[in-house]
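Re: your question about 3-hydroxybutyrate dehydrogenase

S., sorry for the slow reply, the queue was backed up all week. Below is exactly what I fed in.
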Amino acid sequence: MLKGKTALVTGSTSGIGLGIAKALAQQGADILLNGFGDAEAPKAEIAALGVRVEYHGADMSKPSDIEDMMKFGASKFGRIDVLVNNAGIQHVAMIEDFPVERWDAVIAINLSSAFHTTRLAIPAMREANWGRVINIASAHGLVASAQKSAYVAAKHGIVGLTKAVALETATTGVTCNAICPGWVLTPLVQKQIDDRSAREGISVAQAQKDLLGEKQPSLQFTTVEQLGGLAVFLCTPAADQVRGVAWQVDGGWTAQ
Ligand code: NAD
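Result:
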């Protein structure tokens, strides 16, 4: 279905980004990976699916790195057809204790990076009259939790950015949508579970159960495969008129 198309997934060396990159590659898309850490293993996993794969290590907090990555993508693949803005970090603290440097980093990586990749990807998408921008927001793009002011602000911001870009491209074959996952068991969430277990002196299993019980009525984690499936759907013709949505995959979190 996506043969001949190229997808850039930011923050795709682990977790949700890697899961979505795999799902798009399974549909035949060539992949540009990005993110920190070991890139060789994810590259090999994607290559095994029979598509072309490249990696760029842009730090998504740095606009000049992002510009470099977009130029690299164009030189290797011609253009980016599917842009998945996924890179993200978390920091948990009360607002009066929130380190200014952490606020800036969360906003830069979780929100401003999507502004930069999108502004640089849209011209070629417009020219081709086809493109998909998929922003990985969060349940926290729709509702808040205490001690996550920067994350909640960035995720609400990316839902707004999604709607604005969807309107600007509404008469074209380019769509822009957001996916809002609930808890997904990735390194980002495992850290929160481990911190909770240490803070409350409870087992990791109990901390995991409490985390789900607090927010996610299904009491089950959303999986990266489920998110990959939705990203693939958003690339199909059936989704041509899905524009500017913030689509929850959260086990009922935001239905409460
Ligand atoms: P993760 O920590 O497993 O992966 C994050 C990815 O982003 C990694 O590849 C990491 O290297 C990359 N990254 C971090 N900082 C970067 C930077 N400065 N430059 C480039 N890459 C950078 O996390 P995840 O849980 O897979 O999160 C992915 C996205 O999904 C994030 O935007 C997160 O907010 C969102 N999300 C996660 C959950 C969840 O429960 N895990 C829920 C809702 C939304």
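Residues 6-184+223-255 form a domain with the Rossmann fold fold (CATH 3.40.50.720). The chain has two domains: 6-184+223-255, 185-221.

Happy to talk it through on Thursday.
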